[in-house]
């Protein structure tokens, strides 16, 4: 008894740090910044978990991973068991371990975190997924008898992948339609290689296909075929077409050469591999001084990509202050380490161009924080007579996206919200159309990978109930 | 190659062939490292499941496409994209096609004729060896004129001569539809603006995804930003900010001509001013 008490008292108050490429090294390449735990480091971190009888961390997980469960197995050295536990709830652990904002979710509620640094749940999730893949011992759930029901999943992003994996595991026949030439949605075109290697996305997609899901690429639902036509062939449809309609600031000069939406900038680099031009044919400019307008993950990704493309200076231009930045904390810290310059309390008013139509600077004003607005964050207010010119030869608008309009525009009877989003019940994902569910960014507007997965999980449950009852 | 530097490509894509309408386009990739490139649709056969495009060889991707042999496959052929051309009973419609546009106005002209319009087709080219599909147009159109810069076929001159041609024939256009290189379409817009004739053009900006996701294809129409891939490609020619459009189209001129210089492919096509 006394020995056990001694063991408990030896908890390391600090989390095991994640081995990373040095900032100087990593701004010159597109390789993954975080290098991952070794088995030893993972076990050391896993030992910090209190194995709470009433864990709060699980409540913070949108897909309800049994966190103490899989971490407990890591602590015992049973990595295979950890993987099984993890994957019974999360179809994309290698992705989530890398991109979830754990500091807002599981780790925020960690009981250990009240007195010390919370358990590094995300890093352990990543370790588990990577270890299983490296060992080549990927396990598949036992698929029950085929139900004979056929489901169309539209969009192969996080929401669609989750629905496809969950329903395939229940014996339904799934066809997943993807408009682009590579699956993954934002996982492929939006999140950079240095945060989420595309090889890993490929691996996760292969897992889903191994469950029996048929993937059809270059197929645009809403254009190649409409939902109405799809409904004639399938028993149920899930729409996970995402938030692929970029917002521009709406300021003068935004159509100058050198002004990009973040979607364009990142798609050229991530999906089309523009950073290898001319090896891959899609060109990308390599501007010297890049300004990225926005403060979320997409903005951080864009600013850090600019550095890797050789920019001398990469700026985040954000109208609020550091505390209000919505980006994942680790990415903000990584950006700061890499030398991204943060121009807080700054708002662009006009894009200034030269005679040839190229951007040469942003005319900005300084801001100060006033009363909170609807989002709860303090509202930025312009400071009069504070106009100044921020010289740059590229501007990336990373201020958000709306749901892609192709399906809303071409589907009869589908109720659409004010912001172009598909209206869906929060508890089930059901839309106004019979047999049609929706989830992820197309419903909520641009959000996170894990929230899309959570919505996918909810919809899959509801869809299965419906299909089982038919 | 059907005429120098212009190629006809017929692709077996049954899902596209059964849903494509006149005025739409597809996005293609010639190989796995290739760019996504838009091609206007010039013809389609839903029963055979084929779709035809005419394209000009101007850069890396179109050069690669030109070398694809019958029976081979290409990794991406996505569509149909864009809003189809507005069809209706307009009266007398003058269809003007230049370059690849001689092909892409074909399904539009045919459809308008079927609806009872009086359809006049005007084919514009530099010389007679660059004219193609004139017979195809003659099969349905009420009248087909050819304009060549050097006078080796049809009327000698530029598209600026079109009003005279029509006047001589006693024709009065209710609508003009022009497809082809940007400069040609802009000239048509300038011609018809004072005449107050509704003129629709098919815009051809740089594109990547073609589904409305990235915004690179944006142009200003009537003071508002529109995406050519989802709001267009057709727009009212008189409302377009043509200068801005031409400026945006030049964004990657440097990168686009570099591979051609490297490969020594002998393409000295200087029509960057026209494409």
Could you describe the 3D structure shown?
The complex is a heterodimer of chains A (470) and B (275). Chain A folds into 3 domains: 10-135, Orthogonal Bundle (Fumarate Reductase Iron-sulfur Protein, Chain B, domain 2); 150-244 and 402-469, FAD/NAD(P)-binding domain (3-Layer(bba) Sandwich); 248-399, FAD/NAD(P)-binding domain, CATH 3.50.50.60. Helices cover 34% and strands 16% of the residues of chain A. Chain A has 18 helices and 16 strands. Chain A has helices spanning 2-9, 23-26, 39-46, 67-76, 79-87, 93-99, 106-109, 121-135, 158-168, 186-189, 198-210, 227-233, 262-271, 297-308, 329-338, 406-410, 441-444, 449-469, and strands spanning 150-154, 173-177, 214-216, 236-239, 245-246, 259-261, 289-293, 313-317, 341-343, 346-353, 359-372, 378-382, 388-391, 394-397, 401-402, 436-438. A 5-stranded parallel β-sheet of chain A has the order 3-2-1-4-16, with helices on both faces. Chain A has a 5-stranded parallel β-sheet with strand order 6-14-7-8-9. In chain A, strands 10, 11, 12 and 13 form a 4-stranded antiparallel β-sheet that branches. Chain B folds into 2 domains: 6-81, Elongation Factor Tu (Ef-tu), domain 3; 92-249, Rossmann fold (3-Layer(aba) Sandwich). The radius of gyration of chain B is 18 Å and the shape is globular. In chain B, the strands form 4 sheets. Chain B has a 7-stranded mixed β-sheet with strand order 10-9-8-7-11-12-15, with helices on both faces. By secondary structure, chain B is of the alpha/beta class. At the A-B interface, strand 5 and helix 13 of A face strand 6, strand 13, helix 7 and helix 8 of B.
